[in-house]
Design goal:
It is built from 15 helices and 21 strands. By secondary structure, the protein is an alpha/beta fold. This is beta-N-acetylhexosaminidase.
Length: about 500
């Protein structure tokens, strides 16, 4: 039936017939929470979902069966579509089926975020991880600290690609979401049974915040008043100072975050935090001594543990990038394992929940093919078939009790090199379609997966659905002329990615 993601079970009950348009839906708690049973016959469709989420996923399956025109925003003239008479029983493999969208490096307007929620729903993805703050921009309005968006949401120029000599887009870039914008995004997501996980990065990736409020930085080491919102890419040396003032500032930020985002998880980053300023800072060294910490790694862990306790006291759970393992993992924290599988394996064996998102497999900002035509090529080559062979549960956990600690997986879309919705579309699709199947469907081991069958289903039906949705995906035979970015250098990694 060319469905994506592929369902667990399909029983053909007859031929096909014209669609009557009648849908009868109910819930049955004996089914898995997101599971459903969809029965299509001459008189319409009967949907039974474990919850309303299951009903919603069944409707997405029915929508696919109605043909590409079902994905247009308004009906087109023509005869009623033919639908197959069948019974489909389905439920997801993982509870966390996510997309991380970086809106800090390049701001995406609210309507673009809402559109990506629609595209996630089509593919039965249910977690949007919004990367809201970084060195190059702060994207969430905080009432008690208005300079975070007055200053931190804007940079004076933007580096184009990588390599030397540097090239620049001299236009200022920025933007932010008001609190009501974000409430709208959360409500829009909830109506599609998607949870939004906000990320407020500490203690690294914080230059935009320090540019807005210089006393957040290590003022005993550098003149933080001279800092501006980051304009280039890479790991920035300017990190938060380990002071009570900084802790309270971010508590006030998070108090407003919790008012906007009702979900259980709050992401606090914790990644790529250079320690040089702390090594040179008398204030940081005094904190290490006073707390009896194991050096600068212990100081990073002290930051994370503070917010782990703070969030736990308010009924929430901290999740962070796998660097939060350095210096000791915070009690109760979950890990997004990005540098490979190793950190996720260690965290799961230690009794912590894990979301797998290894850069070797599901970093969708990485290039999709070798050659010079790929726009601003980055990282390793990860084709549609490569992403289809991604397995969230690594062999070291498979078949053990620790496998239950893998909540699921997410694909990560970093936007240093994707300055517009069309550029993000190109990087995400069609690979996000393959990823969606790996986290929803019961697939065989990676070496046995039918990647050719996925490509046939894409060609037979799903590209036409993406066309109807207006997605500027990468065509299977390469980028269209207007999708190329000649003259802007990327940063590629050669050879197969290491298996960590």
């Amino acid at each position: 039936m060319n469905l994506i993601p592929a369902p667990r079970g399909i029983e053909r009950t007859g031929g096909t017939g014209p669609w009557t348009g009648e849908v009868r839906a109910r819930t049955d708690p004996s089914l898995p929470p997101e599971g459903y049973r969809l029965a299509i016959g001459p008189d319409g469709a009967d949907i039974t979902g474990g919850t309303e989420a299951g009903v919603s996923w069944a409707r997405q399956t029915l929508r696919q069966l109605l043909g590409p025109d079902a994905f247009r925003r308004a009906p087109v003239e023509g005869t009623a579509p033919e639908v197959p008479f069948a019974v489909i029983e389905d439920a997801p493999r993982f509870a966390w089926r996510g997309l991380m969208l970086d809106v800090a490096r390049h701001f995406l307007p609210k309507d673009d975020v809402l559109r990506y929620l629609d595209l996630m729903a089509v593919h039965k993805l249910n977690v949007l991880h919004l990367h809201l703050t970084d060195d190059q921009g702060w994207r969430i309005e905080i009432g008690r600290h208005p300079r975070l968006t007055e200053v931190g949401a804007w940079r004076r120029r933007t580096r184009l690609g990588w390599g030397e000599p540097a090239r620049w887009d001299e236009r200022p870039h920025g933007g932010f979401y008001t609190r009501d914008d974000l409430r709208e995004i959360v409500a829009y997501a909830a109506a599609r049974h998607i949870t939004v996980v906000p990320e407020i990065d500490v203690p690294g990736h914080s230059q935009a915040a320090i540019a807005a409020y210089p006393d957040l930085g290590n003022t005993d080491v550098i003149d933080t008043s001279a800092l501006e919102v980051g304009t280039a890419w890479g790991i920035c040396p300017n990190v938060l100072a380990p002071t009570d003032r900084v802790l309270r500032f971010y508590e006030e930020v998070l108090e407003e975050v919790l008012e906007i985002f009702p979900g259980r998880f709050v992401h606090i980053g914790g990644d790529e935090c250079p320690k040089d300023q702390w090594r040179r800072s008398p204030v940081a060294q005094a904190r290490i001594a006073a707390e009896g910490l194991d050096g600068e790694d212990g100081l990073q862990s002290w930051f994370i543990r503070h917010f782990d306790r703070w969030l736990t006291a308010r009924g929430r759970r901290l999740v962070g990038w796998d660097e939060i393992l350095e210096g000791g993992l915070a009690e109760g924290a979950a890990v997004t394992s990005w540098r490979g599988y190793a950190a996720g394996i260690a965290a799961a064996k230690a009794g912590h929940d894990v979301v797998m998102c290894p850069r070797q497999h599901v970093y969708l900002d990485h290039r999709q093919a070798p050659g010079d035509d790929e726009p601003v090529p980055l990282g390793w080559v990860r084709t549609l078939a490569d992403v289809y062979r991604f397995e969230p549960v690594p062999p070291a956990l498979a078949g053990t009790p620790h496998a239950a600690r893998v909540l699921g997986a997410q694909a990560n879309m970093w936007t240093e090199l994707t300055e517009s919705r069309d550029r993000v579309d190109y990087q995400l699709f069609p690979r996000l379609c393959a990823f969606a199947e790996t986290v929803w469907s019961d697939l065989p081991p990676p070496a046995e997966r039918d990647a050719a069958g996925l490509l046939r289903r894409m060609d037979a039906a799903h590209y036409a659905r993406l066309d109807a949705l207006g997605v500027a995906y990468r065509p299977p035979d390469g980028p269209r002329p207007w999708q190329r970015r000649p003259g802007i250098r990327g940063r590629v990694k050669h050879g197969p990615p290491p298996q960590e």
